[in-house]
Amino acid sequence: MKKLLFIITLVAFVASTAFGADGGNPRKGKHLFKKSCKTCHDNNGEGGEVTPMTKTQKQWDRLFDKQKHDADAWTNLSERDLKDIQQFLYDHAADSPQPQTCG
Description:
Blueprint: H1 2-17, H2 26-37, H3 57-65, H4 79-91
Helix pairs in contact: 2-4, 3-4
């Protein structure tokens, strides 16, 4: 019985992490976030401070799916770059197993 419960829990965890950016690289995403996003989204930036913990996983997915961001801010980023950033933010969102700021 314990083995079955473990397998169900493992499958549920893997399935929940698959809804992020579908194959984005979170390590590259963290680097890109610091390089591209923190220029405006830090303590002193005009966009207000943003960290992965600013939103839930669902909120990050919704923001990227609807591309609800100033279009000019994303013009220098490829589709792959955006997926990597989304995956980093999703993996460390407020409701994720590993919430984090971007220090």
